[in-house]
Amino acid sequence: MSGVRVLGGEVERGDEILTPDALEFVAGLHRDFAATRDDLVARRAHRRPLGFLPGTRAVRDGDWRVAEAPEPLRDRRVEITGPTERKMTINALNSGAKVWLADLEDANTPHWRNVVSGQVNLYDAARGTIEHTSPEGKRYALRDDVARPAIVVRPRGWHLPERHLEIDGKPAVGALVDFGLHFFHNAELGRPYYYLPKMESHLEARLWNDVFTAAQQRLGVPHGTIRATVLIETIPAAFEMDEILYELRDHASGLNAGRWDYLFSIIKYFRDAGPDAVLPDRNAITMTVPFMRAYTELLVRTCHKRGAFAIGGMAAFIPNRRDPEVTRNALAKVRDDKRREAGDGFDGSWVAHPDLVPVCAEIFDQKLWDKPNQLDELRPEVSVTAEQLLDFTSAGGGATRAGVESAVDVGVRYLLSWLGGNGAAAIHNLMEDAATAEISRSQLWQWVHNGVVLEDGTPVTAELVRGVLAQVREELDGEHLDLAVELFEQVALADEFVDFLTLPAYERIG
Questions:
Q1: Tens digit of each residue's pLDDT (9 = 90 or more) over 44-77
Q2: Exposure letters 266-293 (e unless 16+ CB within 10 A, then b)
Q3: Is 154 a catalytic residue?
Q4: What pLDDT digit, counting tens, does each position of 202-261 carry?
Q5: What domains can you pick out in the chain, each with its CATH number?
Q6: Does the annotation count 43 as an active-site position?
Q7: Which is catalytic among the residues 37, 154, 249, 441?
Q8: Structure pTM?
Q9: Which of 75, 306, 433, 441 is the catalytic position?
Protein backbone atom coordinates (compact mmCIF):
# COMPACT_ATOMS: atom_id res chain seq x y z
CA MET A 1 0.00 0.00 0.00
CA SER A 2 1.77 3.11 -1.20
CA GLY A 3 2.01 5.82 1.44
CA VAL A 4 0.14 3.92 4.18
CA ARG A 5 1.97 2.78 7.31
CA VAL A 6 0.46 1.06 10.35
CA LEU A 7 2.57 2.12 13.33
CA GLY A 8 0.50 0.52 16.08
CA GLY A 9 1.20 -2.94 17.43
CA GLU A 10 -0.63 -6.14 16.66
CA VAL A 11 -4.22 -6.46 17.88
CA GLU A 12 -6.17 -9.72 17.99
CA ARG A 13 -8.05 -10.14 14.69
CA GLY A 14 -6.61 -6.83 13.55
CA ASP A 15 -5.78 -8.37 10.18
CA GLU A 16 -9.53 -8.75 9.57
CA ILE A 17 -10.03 -5.01 9.97
CA LEU A 18 -6.77 -3.56 8.66
CA THR A 19 -6.98 -5.22 5.26
CA PRO A 20 -5.17 -3.66 2.30
CA ASP A 21 -8.49 -2.65 0.72
CA ALA A 22 -9.81 -1.12 3.95
CA LEU A 23 -6.63 0.87 4.50
CA GLU A 24 -6.66 2.12 0.91
CA PHE A 25 -10.28 3.21 1.39
CA VAL A 26 -9.36 5.17 4.52
CA ALA A 27 -6.31 6.62 2.77
CA GLY A 28 -8.47 7.78 -0.12
CA LEU A 29 -10.79 9.65 2.23
CA HIS A 30 -7.81 11.16 4.02
CA ARG A 31 -6.18 12.36 0.81
CA ASP A 32 -9.37 13.95 -0.43
CA PHE A 33 -10.58 15.58 2.77
CA ALA A 34 -7.75 16.02 5.31
CA ALA A 35 -6.72 19.43 3.96
CA THR A 36 -10.25 20.79 4.29
CA ARG A 37 -10.46 19.34 7.76
CA ASP A 38 -7.18 21.02 8.71
CA ASP A 39 -8.47 24.36 7.48
CA LEU A 40 -11.77 24.08 9.33
CA VAL A 41 -10.12 23.08 12.61
CA ALA A 42 -7.70 26.01 12.26
CA ARG A 43 -10.65 28.37 11.74
CA ARG A 44 -11.95 27.51 15.20
CA ALA A 45 -9.21 29.61 16.73
CA HIS A 46 -10.70 32.74 15.16
CA ARG A 47 -13.56 33.36 17.54
CA ARG A 48 -16.34 35.54 16.14
CA PRO A 49 -19.09 37.42 17.95
CA LEU A 50 -21.79 34.78 18.26
CA GLY A 51 -25.21 35.21 16.71
CA PHE A 52 -27.38 33.75 13.97
CA LEU A 53 -25.53 34.07 10.66
CA PRO A 54 -26.88 36.81 8.38
CA GLY A 55 -25.56 35.04 5.30
CA THR A 56 -27.62 31.90 5.87
CA ARG A 57 -30.97 33.50 6.67
CA ALA A 58 -32.48 31.95 3.53
CA VAL A 59 -31.69 28.48 4.92
CA ARG A 60 -33.32 29.28 8.26
CA ASP A 61 -36.37 30.77 6.58
CA GLY A 62 -36.61 28.17 3.81
CA ASP A 63 -39.18 25.41 3.50
CA TRP A 64 -37.12 22.22 3.39
CA ARG A 65 -36.90 18.94 5.30
CA VAL A 66 -34.30 16.24 5.83
CA ALA A 67 -34.71 12.84 4.23
CA GLU A 68 -37.30 10.56 5.80
CA ALA A 69 -35.84 8.27 8.44
CA PRO A 70 -35.24 4.60 7.68
CA GLU A 71 -37.33 2.17 9.71
CA PRO A 72 -34.62 1.29 12.33
CA LEU A 73 -34.32 4.97 13.31
CA ARG A 74 -37.99 5.98 13.52
CA ASP A 75 -38.38 5.03 17.18
CA ARG A 76 -35.51 6.31 19.32
CA ARG A 77 -37.20 6.71 22.68
CA VAL A 78 -34.31 5.12 24.60
CA GLU A 79 -30.68 5.21 23.49
CA ILE A 80 -27.97 3.55 25.54
CA THR A 81 -24.44 4.86 25.21
CA GLY A 82 -21.12 3.22 25.87
CA PRO A 83 -17.71 2.23 24.55
CA THR A 84 -17.17 -0.61 22.10
CA GLU A 85 -15.48 -2.84 24.67
CA ARG A 86 -16.69 -6.39 24.02
CA LYS A 87 -18.67 -7.11 27.19
CA MET A 88 -20.25 -3.66 27.19
CA THR A 89 -21.19 -4.12 23.55
CA ILE A 90 -23.10 -7.29 24.39
CA ASN A 91 -24.77 -5.69 27.41
CA ALA A 92 -25.87 -2.73 25.28
CA LEU A 93 -27.29 -5.00 22.58
CA ASN A 94 -29.19 -6.96 25.25
CA SER A 95 -30.46 -3.86 27.06
CA GLY A 96 -33.81 -3.40 25.34
CA ALA A 97 -32.88 0.11 24.16
CA LYS A 98 -33.96 1.23 20.69
CA VAL A 99 -30.48 2.57 19.80
CA TRP A 100 -26.97 1.83 20.98
CA LEU A 101 -24.55 4.73 20.62
CA ALA A 102 -21.34 2.81 20.03
CA ASP A 103 -18.80 5.33 21.24
CA LEU A 104 -15.38 5.55 19.62
CA GLU A 105 -14.97 9.08 20.95
CA ASP A 106 -15.49 10.46 24.49
CA ALA A 107 -15.99 7.06 26.14
CA ASN A 108 -12.95 5.53 24.51
CA THR A 109 -9.23 5.92 25.15
CA PRO A 110 -7.66 5.82 21.68
CA HIS A 111 -5.04 3.20 22.50
CA TRP A 112 -4.42 1.42 19.21
CA ARG A 113 -5.79 -1.81 20.66
CA ASN A 114 -9.02 0.01 21.57
CA VAL A 115 -9.31 1.58 18.13
CA VAL A 116 -8.91 -1.73 16.31
CA SER A 117 -10.67 -4.06 18.76
CA GLY A 118 -13.61 -1.65 18.78
CA GLN A 119 -13.94 -2.16 15.04
CA VAL A 120 -13.73 -5.94 15.53
CA ASN A 121 -16.54 -5.77 18.07
CA LEU A 122 -18.67 -3.58 15.80
CA TYR A 123 -18.11 -6.04 12.97
CA ASP A 124 -19.34 -8.95 15.07
CA ALA A 125 -22.18 -6.92 16.58
CA ALA A 126 -23.50 -5.94 13.16
CA ARG A 127 -23.64 -9.63 12.20
CA GLY A 128 -25.09 -10.85 15.48
CA THR A 129 -22.13 -13.13 16.15
CA ILE A 130 -20.55 -11.35 19.11
CA GLU A 131 -19.86 -13.29 22.30
CA HIS A 132 -17.39 -13.06 25.16
CA THR A 133 -15.99 -15.18 27.98
CA SER A 134 -14.52 -13.31 30.93
CA PRO A 135 -11.24 -14.35 32.61
CA GLU A 136 -13.42 -15.81 35.39
CA GLY A 137 -15.21 -18.01 32.87
CA LYS A 138 -18.51 -16.11 32.66
CA ARG A 139 -20.01 -16.21 29.18
CA TYR A 140 -21.76 -13.26 27.55
CA ALA A 141 -23.89 -13.72 24.42
CA LEU A 142 -26.76 -12.05 22.61
CA ARG A 143 -30.21 -12.86 23.92
CA ASP A 144 -32.88 -14.20 21.59
CA ASP A 145 -35.77 -12.69 23.56
CA VAL A 146 -34.74 -9.02 23.24
CA ALA A 147 -34.94 -6.90 20.10
CA ARG A 148 -31.51 -5.56 19.26
CA PRO A 149 -31.05 -1.81 19.04
CA ALA A 150 -29.94 0.02 15.95
CA ILE A 151 -26.19 0.60 16.16
CA VAL A 152 -25.17 4.23 15.74
CA VAL A 153 -21.39 4.73 15.77
CA ARG A 154 -19.78 7.89 17.15
CA PRO A 155 -16.39 8.48 15.49
CA ARG A 156 -13.86 10.87 16.93
CA GLY A 157 -14.24 14.61 16.42
CA TRP A 158 -12.48 16.46 13.61
CA HIS A 159 -9.74 17.72 15.94
CA LEU A 160 -8.24 14.35 16.87
CA PRO A 161 -5.46 12.61 14.90
CA GLU A 162 -4.71 8.90 14.69
CA ARG A 163 -0.95 8.77 15.06
CA HIS A 164 -0.80 4.95 14.86
CA LEU A 165 -1.81 5.14 11.18
CA GLU A 166 0.32 7.28 8.88
CA ILE A 167 -0.77 8.37 5.42
CA ASP A 168 1.78 10.02 3.13
CA GLY A 169 3.98 10.79 6.12
CA LYS A 170 1.28 12.39 8.29
CA PRO A 171 -0.98 11.05 11.05
CA ALA A 172 -4.38 10.03 9.72
CA VAL A 173 -7.49 11.99 10.71
CA GLY A 174 -9.05 10.08 13.60
CA ALA A 175 -12.61 10.73 12.45
CA LEU A 176 -11.88 9.33 9.00
CA VAL A 177 -10.19 6.25 10.46
CA ASP A 178 -13.17 5.47 12.69
CA PHE A 179 -15.80 6.19 10.05
CA GLY A 180 -13.86 4.72 7.15
CA LEU A 181 -13.06 1.36 8.75
CA HIS A 182 -16.60 0.93 10.05
CA PHE A 183 -18.28 1.95 6.79
CA PHE A 184 -15.97 -0.17 4.65
CA HIS A 185 -16.68 -3.34 6.62
CA ASN A 186 -20.36 -2.85 7.43
CA ALA A 187 -21.99 -0.75 4.70
CA GLU A 188 -23.11 -3.88 2.86
CA LEU A 189 -25.44 -4.67 5.76
CA GLY A 190 -27.42 -1.54 5.00
CA ARG A 191 -27.38 0.28 8.34
CA PRO A 192 -24.44 2.70 8.36
CA TYR A 193 -25.61 5.13 11.05
CA TYR A 194 -23.42 7.68 12.85
CA TYR A 195 -23.34 10.27 15.63
CA LEU A 196 -21.15 13.27 14.74
CA PRO A 197 -19.49 15.07 17.67
CA LYS A 198 -17.80 18.39 18.43
CA MET A 199 -18.72 20.30 15.28
CA GLU A 200 -18.61 24.09 15.47
CA SER A 201 -20.11 25.14 12.13
CA HIS A 202 -22.24 24.11 9.18
CA LEU A 203 -19.06 24.06 7.10
CA GLU A 204 -17.85 21.14 9.22
CA ALA A 205 -21.19 19.45 8.57
CA ARG A 206 -20.72 20.08 4.85
CA LEU A 207 -17.39 18.30 5.06
CA TRP A 208 -19.01 15.28 6.66
CA ASN A 209 -21.65 15.30 3.93
CA ASP A 210 -18.93 15.35 1.27
CA VAL A 211 -17.20 12.43 3.02
CA PHE A 212 -20.46 10.46 3.11
CA THR A 213 -21.18 11.14 -0.55
CA ALA A 214 -17.71 10.05 -1.63
CA ALA A 215 -17.72 6.95 0.59
CA GLN A 216 -21.05 5.78 -0.79
CA GLN A 217 -19.97 6.35 -4.38
CA ARG A 218 -16.72 4.42 -3.93
CA LEU A 219 -18.41 1.36 -2.50
CA GLY A 220 -21.45 1.51 -4.77
CA VAL A 221 -23.82 2.23 -1.89
CA PRO A 222 -26.98 4.22 -2.75
CA HIS A 223 -26.78 7.92 -1.93
CA GLY A 224 -28.51 8.67 1.37
CA THR A 225 -27.98 5.23 2.89
CA ILE A 226 -25.78 6.81 5.57
CA ARG A 227 -27.71 8.61 8.33
CA ALA A 228 -26.12 10.94 10.84
CA THR A 229 -27.26 12.50 14.10
CA VAL A 230 -25.29 15.58 15.12
CA LEU A 231 -24.43 16.41 18.70
CA ILE A 232 -25.05 20.10 19.30
CA GLU A 233 -22.44 20.30 22.02
CA THR A 234 -20.62 23.51 21.15
CA ILE A 235 -21.92 27.04 21.57
CA PRO A 236 -21.17 28.08 17.95
CA ALA A 237 -23.18 25.10 16.64
CA ALA A 238 -26.19 26.19 18.71
CA PHE A 239 -26.52 29.15 16.32
CA GLU A 240 -26.29 26.95 13.21
CA MET A 241 -28.71 24.07 13.87
CA ASP A 242 -30.76 24.74 10.73
CA GLU A 243 -27.66 25.13 8.63
CA ILE A 244 -26.10 21.92 9.96
CA LEU A 245 -29.21 19.92 9.16
CA TYR A 246 -29.42 21.56 5.74
CA GLU A 247 -25.85 20.63 4.81
CA LEU A 248 -26.54 17.02 5.80
CA ARG A 249 -30.16 16.93 4.65
CA ASP A 250 -29.82 13.81 2.47
CA HIS A 251 -28.04 12.05 5.33
CA ALA A 252 -29.41 13.77 8.45
CA SER A 253 -31.33 11.95 11.13
CA GLY A 254 -31.46 14.44 14.00
CA LEU A 255 -29.73 16.52 16.62
CA ASN A 256 -28.78 15.72 20.21
CA ALA A 257 -28.71 18.10 23.18
CA GLY A 258 -25.81 17.42 25.51
CA ARG A 259 -24.83 19.11 28.75
CA TRP A 260 -21.20 18.88 29.85
CA ASP A 261 -19.58 19.37 26.46
CA TYR A 262 -21.92 22.28 25.75
CA LEU A 263 -20.94 23.97 29.02
CA PHE A 264 -17.29 23.18 28.35
CA SER A 265 -17.62 24.86 24.97
CA ILE A 266 -19.17 27.96 26.54
CA ILE A 267 -16.26 28.29 28.95
CA LYS A 268 -13.71 27.71 26.20
CA TYR A 269 -15.31 30.23 23.87
CA PHE A 270 -15.83 32.93 26.50
CA ARG A 271 -12.89 32.12 28.77
CA ASP A 272 -11.62 35.71 28.69
CA ALA A 273 -14.95 37.52 28.27
CA GLY A 274 -15.28 38.77 31.83
CA PRO A 275 -17.54 38.06 34.83
CA ASP A 276 -20.80 37.75 32.86
CA ALA A 277 -19.46 34.60 31.20
CA VAL A 278 -18.18 32.92 34.37
CA LEU A 279 -20.27 29.87 35.19
CA PRO A 280 -21.08 28.61 38.71
CA ASP A 281 -20.49 25.09 40.05
CA ARG A 282 -21.25 22.63 37.28
CA ASN A 283 -23.81 20.75 39.35
CA ALA A 284 -25.76 23.99 39.78
CA ILE A 285 -26.28 24.31 36.02
CA THR A 286 -29.24 22.09 35.31
CA MET A 287 -31.04 21.80 32.00
CA THR A 288 -33.77 24.03 33.40
CA VAL A 289 -31.69 27.20 33.87
CA PRO A 290 -32.82 29.79 31.29
CA PHE A 291 -29.90 29.70 28.88
CA MET A 292 -29.91 25.88 28.78
CA ARG A 293 -33.68 25.86 28.39
CA ALA A 294 -33.38 28.21 25.42
CA TYR A 295 -30.86 25.85 23.82
CA THR A 296 -32.97 22.71 24.22
CA GLU A 297 -36.25 24.30 23.15
CA LEU A 298 -34.62 25.76 20.05
CA LEU A 299 -33.20 22.32 19.25
CA VAL A 300 -36.59 20.59 19.44
CA ARG A 301 -38.31 23.27 17.38
CA THR A 302 -35.56 23.25 14.73
CA CYS A 303 -35.49 19.47 14.44
CA HIS A 304 -39.22 18.96 14.12
CA LYS A 305 -39.64 21.81 11.65
CA ARG A 306 -37.17 19.92 9.44
CA GLY A 307 -38.48 16.39 10.04
CA ALA A 308 -35.44 15.45 12.14
CA PHE A 309 -35.37 13.76 15.53
CA ALA A 310 -34.53 15.62 18.73
CA ILE A 311 -32.63 13.44 21.19
CA GLY A 312 -32.21 14.45 24.83
CA GLY A 313 -29.29 14.30 27.20
CA MET A 314 -27.58 11.69 29.30
CA ALA A 315 -28.82 10.00 32.46
CA ALA A 316 -25.39 8.98 33.74
CA PHE A 317 -26.44 7.44 37.07
CA ILE A 318 -25.28 3.90 37.86
CA PRO A 319 -27.74 2.18 40.23
CA ASN A 320 -26.11 1.31 43.55
CA ARG A 321 -27.45 -2.03 44.74
CA ARG A 322 -25.70 -1.58 48.09
CA ASP A 323 -27.47 1.69 48.85
CA PRO A 324 -31.17 1.60 47.90
CA GLU A 325 -31.74 5.11 49.25
CA VAL A 326 -29.10 6.61 46.93
CA THR A 327 -30.62 4.72 44.02
CA ARG A 328 -34.17 5.75 44.89
CA ASN A 329 -33.29 9.45 45.08
CA ALA A 330 -31.25 9.35 41.88
CA LEU A 331 -33.95 7.54 39.93
CA ALA A 332 -36.46 10.17 40.99
CA LYS A 333 -34.21 12.84 39.45
CA VAL A 334 -33.77 10.74 36.30
CA ARG A 335 -37.56 10.42 35.94
CA ASP A 336 -38.04 14.17 36.41
CA ASP A 337 -35.40 14.90 33.78
CA LYS A 338 -36.90 12.47 31.25
CA ARG A 339 -40.41 13.81 31.89
CA ARG A 340 -39.15 17.28 31.07
CA GLU A 341 -37.61 16.05 27.84
CA ALA A 342 -40.68 14.05 26.81
CA GLY A 343 -42.91 17.00 27.66
CA ASP A 344 -40.75 19.36 25.62
CA GLY A 345 -41.14 17.19 22.53
CA PHE A 346 -37.90 15.24 22.48
CA ASP A 347 -38.20 11.96 20.57
CA GLY A 348 -35.94 10.06 22.93
CA SER A 349 -33.09 10.32 25.38
CA TRP A 350 -29.82 8.80 26.51
CA VAL A 351 -28.98 6.48 29.40
CA ALA A 352 -25.59 5.10 30.41
CA HIS A 353 -26.64 1.91 32.21
CA PRO A 354 -28.94 -0.96 31.18
CA ASP A 355 -30.95 -0.61 34.42
CA LEU A 356 -32.04 2.86 33.30
CA VAL A 357 -33.47 1.66 29.98
CA PRO A 358 -36.88 0.67 31.44
CA VAL A 359 -36.97 3.89 33.49
CA CYS A 360 -36.52 6.07 30.41
CA ALA A 361 -38.79 3.86 28.31
CA GLU A 362 -41.61 4.14 30.85
CA ILE A 363 -41.57 7.94 30.69
CA PHE A 364 -41.52 8.13 26.90
CA ASP A 365 -44.10 5.34 26.59
CA GLN A 366 -46.49 7.42 28.68
CA LYS A 367 -45.99 10.42 26.39
CA LEU A 368 -45.86 8.66 23.04
CA TRP A 369 -48.57 6.02 23.53
CA ASP A 370 -48.66 4.24 20.17
CA LYS A 371 -46.54 6.79 18.28
CA PRO A 372 -42.90 6.04 17.43
CA ASN A 373 -41.80 9.67 17.91
CA GLN A 374 -42.98 13.25 18.39
CA LEU A 375 -42.16 14.75 15.01
CA ASP A 376 -45.68 16.18 14.97
CA GLU A 377 -44.86 18.35 18.03
CA LEU A 378 -43.72 21.39 16.07
CA ARG A 379 -43.45 23.82 19.02
CA PRO A 380 -44.39 26.93 16.96
CA GLU A 381 -44.65 28.97 20.15
CA VAL A 382 -40.90 28.69 20.75
CA SER A 383 -38.92 31.77 19.78
CA VAL A 384 -35.32 31.94 20.97
CA THR A 385 -33.02 34.92 20.61
CA ALA A 386 -29.25 35.09 20.57
CA GLU A 387 -29.42 37.02 23.82
CA GLN A 388 -31.24 34.17 25.53
CA LEU A 389 -28.67 31.62 24.37
CA LEU A 390 -25.89 33.84 25.68
CA ASP A 391 -27.46 34.90 29.00
CA PHE A 392 -25.10 32.89 31.18
CA THR A 393 -25.85 34.98 34.26
CA SER A 394 -29.34 33.41 34.22
CA ALA A 395 -27.80 30.30 35.78
CA GLY A 396 -27.42 32.10 39.13
CA GLY A 397 -25.37 30.41 41.82
CA GLY A 398 -21.68 30.73 42.48
CA ALA A 399 -18.43 28.89 42.96
CA THR A 400 -17.99 26.81 46.10
CA ARG A 401 -15.16 24.98 47.81
CA ALA A 402 -17.09 21.75 47.27
CA GLY A 403 -17.18 22.59 43.58
CA VAL A 404 -13.41 23.03 43.45
CA GLU A 405 -12.81 19.78 45.32
CA SER A 406 -15.26 17.87 43.13
CA ALA A 407 -13.75 19.22 39.92
CA VAL A 408 -10.25 18.15 40.93
CA ASP A 409 -11.33 14.79 42.31
CA VAL A 410 -13.46 13.77 39.32
CA GLY A 411 -11.00 15.15 36.79
CA VAL A 412 -8.03 13.24 38.19
CA ARG A 413 -10.03 10.06 38.67
CA TYR A 414 -11.20 10.19 35.09
CA LEU A 415 -7.72 10.81 33.68
CA LEU A 416 -6.40 7.94 35.80
CA SER A 417 -8.98 5.68 34.15
CA TRP A 418 -8.45 7.12 30.67
CA LEU A 419 -4.68 6.67 30.76
CA GLY A 420 -5.25 3.06 31.75
CA GLY A 421 -7.32 2.47 28.63
CA ASN A 422 -10.85 2.91 30.00
CA GLY A 423 -12.64 5.98 28.66
CA ALA A 424 -15.96 5.20 30.39
CA ALA A 425 -15.27 5.46 34.11
CA ALA A 426 -17.64 4.73 36.99
CA ILE A 427 -17.02 7.57 39.46
CA HIS A 428 -19.23 8.21 42.51
CA ASN A 429 -22.22 6.32 41.05
CA LEU A 430 -21.99 8.11 37.70
CA MET A 431 -20.70 6.89 34.35
CA GLU A 432 -18.28 9.59 33.27
CA ASP A 433 -16.58 10.22 29.94
CA ALA A 434 -14.15 12.83 28.64
CA ALA A 435 -16.80 15.57 28.72
CA THR A 436 -16.87 15.40 32.52
CA ALA A 437 -13.14 15.93 32.79
CA GLU A 438 -13.33 18.77 30.27
CA ILE A 439 -15.96 20.72 32.22
CA SER A 440 -14.10 20.03 35.49
CA ARG A 441 -10.74 21.38 34.37
CA SER A 442 -12.16 24.22 32.27
CA GLN A 443 -14.20 25.54 35.19
CA LEU A 444 -11.11 25.68 37.35
CA TRP A 445 -9.18 27.45 34.58
CA GLN A 446 -11.97 30.01 34.20
CA TRP A 447 -12.27 30.64 37.93
CA VAL A 448 -8.51 31.06 38.41
CA HIS A 449 -8.07 33.35 35.41
CA ASN A 450 -11.09 35.51 36.22
CA GLY A 451 -10.34 36.10 39.89
CA VAL A 452 -13.43 34.26 41.13
CA VAL A 453 -14.05 34.26 44.89
CA LEU A 454 -15.74 31.28 46.53
CA GLU A 455 -18.92 31.71 48.52
CA ASP A 456 -16.85 31.40 51.71
CA GLY A 457 -14.69 34.35 50.64
CA THR A 458 -11.65 32.35 49.46
CA PRO A 459 -10.12 33.48 46.14
CA VAL A 460 -9.73 30.71 43.57
CA THR A 461 -6.00 30.68 42.84
CA ALA A 462 -3.58 28.25 41.26
CA GLU A 463 -2.20 27.62 44.77
CA LEU A 464 -5.66 26.65 46.03
CA VAL A 465 -6.16 24.23 43.14
CA ARG A 466 -2.69 22.72 43.63
CA GLY A 467 -3.45 22.25 47.33
CA VAL A 468 -6.63 20.34 46.55
CA LEU A 469 -4.76 18.39 43.88
CA ALA A 470 -2.20 17.30 46.47
CA GLN A 471 -4.99 16.11 48.79
CA VAL A 472 -6.64 14.13 46.00
CA ARG A 473 -3.31 12.59 45.07
CA GLU A 474 -2.90 11.29 48.63
CA GLU A 475 -6.32 9.62 48.47
CA LEU A 476 -5.76 7.76 45.19
CA ASP A 477 -3.37 5.22 43.79
CA GLY A 478 -2.76 3.60 40.47
CA GLU A 479 -0.13 2.99 37.83
CA HIS A 480 -0.78 6.28 36.05
CA LEU A 481 -1.48 8.51 39.06
CA ASP A 482 1.57 10.78 38.68
CA LEU A 483 0.81 11.36 35.01
CA ALA A 484 -2.90 11.93 35.68
CA VAL A 485 -2.09 14.60 38.26
CA GLU A 486 0.50 16.21 35.99
CA LEU A 487 -1.90 16.32 33.04
CA PHE A 488 -4.79 17.68 35.09
CA GLU A 489 -2.64 20.46 36.50
CA GLN A 490 -1.45 21.29 32.99
CA VAL A 491 -4.90 21.58 31.42
CA ALA A 492 -6.47 23.29 34.44
CA LEU A 493 -3.81 25.87 35.21
CA ALA A 494 -1.65 26.53 32.13
CA ASP A 495 -1.46 30.17 31.03
CA GLU A 496 -2.81 29.23 27.60
CA PHE A 497 -6.08 27.33 27.55
CA VAL A 498 -5.62 23.86 26.05
CA ASP A 499 -8.43 23.29 23.54
CA PHE A 500 -8.97 19.62 24.40
CA LEU A 501 -7.36 17.73 27.27
CA THR A 502 -7.34 14.58 25.13
CA LEU A 503 -4.73 16.13 22.84
CA PRO A 504 -1.85 16.33 25.37
CA ALA A 505 -3.12 13.13 27.02
CA TYR A 506 -3.00 11.30 23.68
CA GLU A 507 0.66 12.17 23.34
CA ARG A 508 1.38 10.28 26.55
CA ILE A 509 -0.24 6.92 25.76
CA GLY A 510 0.98 3.99 23.72
A1: 999 889 999 999 999 999 999 999 999 999 999 9
A2: bbbbbbebeeebbbbbbeebebebebbb
A3: yes
A4: 999 999 999 999 999 999 999 999 999 999 999 999 999 999 999 999 999 999 998 999
A5: 4-387 (3.20.20.360), 398-507 (1.20.1220.12)
A6: no
A7: 154
A8: 0.97
A9: 433
